[in-house]
């Protein structure tokens, strides 16, 4: 109990209660914490979000304490009863979160003690908030990773849906944002499926290292009680137990890796966003997205702005910023726990929220929304194949095919390349595509050119010819589609 003159005997809480933070630290303190410091150090208004994980961790710990004979079965039952009531209070909004009690852990423990008395005070036996908070964050993050995995699957499914409808649609493929070679629009969509599949993989990999139990490390050195940490890990569905108490309470590398994986995922989203924005512009006109993902302008009546992809592109910066924040937070921290680590939560929470919202909205924007009447998804990306084809033709997208044609006729590739450069120059000056030059003109560039050159010069011929594994020929794209369908289930 604080010996502060501020706490008059009349207002002093009973010994069964833990109403203010001063009580958590006991008699050592000679003055109460200033309000400013209270606000500065308290985390309850953001870490209350961990409440479910906190209660799950406490129940697993209490069950183990009872099984090991460290607390009585009766105390265990009281703790379970108290936690059930607290769960209900939090769910119904009746729970009173107190800034004075600093964080989610002290808030819940104080309420438990209020409800069940001494049994509540025994819960913290063999435990510290240091191993408690590390456990809570891991448990919470594990759940979020599983939700993100589902969303990543959904987004991949949406991209596969769009791809399936557009295998034969020809898009000018770009390098340096200059028309390069024709590709199947589906092939382009499936490139993003590959990226998001790797993101999902990375998340699973991160999950393996998140799902390890710090509890039982206590403050930093382990504890004098005969804990059964493996049992707690099993109860919580964790894959293992942290093997060094100092490391367990202090490192937040798992949060950093998660945020790195999230950053990469957002970077992929930002690339897709950028393409959607370009493709939607009047100068391209390749695609449309549903109106509900666009906004108008307050001054220019003709505008439909791609706000959703633009915001996603912007939010990528925010998530990458969180990665920088977290990694800098960890840098130079001496072992073991330091209060710095309380700063892990807001960036982590915001990363999860931003990523989940973004994936959810992209899955719908790309693939559409399920129409219960038809059982089909409606309102996803729609494409304008004519605009794409025009753009491909304008950019001499089949110039490489003419060079390859000449190589097949026996020319060394470098010579063929040079010959085609001349042909492109001539076509440019006439304002036509290579395929629109008369045969006689083409033969002027090289006598080996024959009538069959027009197969090579057509966009479709060019596409069909790239029939190697991973290439854009529709046969290859269909094979990849089948693989993704099977993989995504
Ligand atoms: N709210 C704290 C955090 O988020 C819990 C751990 C506090 N531990 C301590 N020794 N002050 O990190």
Automatic annotation (TrEMBL):
Catalytic activity as recorded in UniProt: 2-(N(omega)-L-arginino)succinate = fumarate + L-arginine
Domain Argininosuccinate lyase C-terminal: 396-464
Keywords recorded for this protein, A-Z: Amino-acid biosynthesis, Arginine biosynthesis, Cytoplasm, Lyase
Domain of life: Bacteria
Pathway: Amino-acid biosynthesis; L-arginine biosynthesis; L-arginine from L-ornithine and carbamoyl phosphate: step 3/3
A GO CC term assigned to this protein in UniProt: cytosol
The keyword Lyase belongs to this UniProt entry's keyword annotation: yes
Top-rank EC class of the record's enzyme: lyase
One GO BP annotation of this record: L-arginine biosynthetic process via ornithine
Entry-linked InterPro entries: Arg_succ_lyase_C (IPR029419), Argininosuccinate_lyase (IPR009049), Fumarase/histidase_N (IPR024083), Fumarate_lyase_CS (IPR020557), Fumarate_lyase_fam (IPR000362), Fumarate_lyase_N (IPR022761), L-Aspartase-like (IPR008948)
Stated name of the protein: Argininosuccinate lyase
Organism: Paracidovorax wautersii
């Amino acid at each position: 109990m604080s010996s502060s003159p501020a706490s008059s005997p009349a207002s002093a809480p009973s010994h069964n209660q833990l109403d203010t933070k001063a009580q958590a630290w006991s008699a050592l303190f000679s003055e109460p914490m200033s309000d400013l410091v209270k606000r500065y150090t308290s985390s309850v208004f953001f870490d209350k979000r961990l409440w479910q994980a906190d209660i799950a961790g406490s129940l697993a710990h209490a069950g183990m304490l009872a099984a090991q004979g460290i607390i009585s079965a009766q105390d265990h039952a009281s703790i379970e009863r108290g936690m059930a009531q607290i769960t209900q209070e939090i769910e119904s909004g009746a729970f009173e979160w107190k800034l004075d009690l600093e964080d989610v852990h002290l808030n819940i423990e104080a309420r438990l003690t209020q409800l069940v008395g001494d049994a509540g005070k025994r819960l913290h036996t063999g435990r510290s908030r240091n191993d408690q908070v590390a456990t809570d964050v891991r448990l919470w993050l594990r759940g979020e990773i599983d939700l993100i995995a589902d969303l990543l699957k959904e987004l991949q499914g949406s991209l596969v849906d769009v791809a399936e409808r557009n295998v034969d649609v020809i898009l000018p493929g770009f390098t340096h944002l200059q028309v390069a070679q024709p590709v199947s629009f589906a092939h382009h969509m499936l490139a993003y499926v590959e990226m998001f599949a790797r993101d999902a993989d990375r998340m699973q990999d991160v999950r393996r290292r998140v799902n390890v139990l710090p509890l039982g490390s206590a403050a930093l050195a382990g504890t004098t009680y005969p804990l059964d940490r493996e049992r707690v890990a099993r109860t919580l569905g964790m894959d293992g137990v942290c093997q060094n108490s100092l490391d367990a309470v202090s490192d937040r590398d798992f949060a950093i890796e998660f945020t790195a994986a999230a950053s990469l995922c957002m970077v992929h989203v930002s690339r897709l966003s950028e393409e959607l924005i370009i493709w939607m512009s009047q100068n391209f006109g390749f695609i449309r997205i549903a109106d509900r993902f666009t906004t108008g302008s307050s001054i220019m009546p003709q505008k439909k702005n791609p706000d959703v992809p633009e915001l996603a592109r912007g939010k990528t910066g925010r998530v990458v910023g969180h990665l920088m924040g977290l990694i800098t937070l960890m840098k130079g921290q001496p072992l073991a726990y330091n209060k710095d680590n309380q700063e892990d939560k807001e960036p982590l929470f915001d990363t999860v929220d931003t990523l989940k919202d973004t994936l959810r909205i992209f899955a719908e924007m790309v693939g559409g929304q399920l129409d219960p009447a038809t059982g089909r998804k409606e309102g996803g990306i729609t494409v304008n194949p004519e605009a794409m084809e025009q753009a491909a033709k304008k950019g001499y997208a089949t110039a490489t095919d003419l060079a390859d044609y000449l190589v097949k006729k026996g020319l060394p590739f470098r010579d063929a390349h040079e010959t085609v450069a001349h042909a492109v120059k001539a076509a440019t000056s006439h304002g036509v595509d290579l395929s629109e030059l008369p045969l006689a003109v083409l033969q002027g560039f090289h006598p080996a050119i024959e009538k069959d050159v027009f197969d090579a010069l057509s966009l479709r011929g060019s596409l069909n010819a790239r029939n190697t594994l991973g290439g854009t020929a529709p046969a290859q794209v269909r094979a990849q589609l089948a693989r993704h369908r099977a993989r995504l289930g």
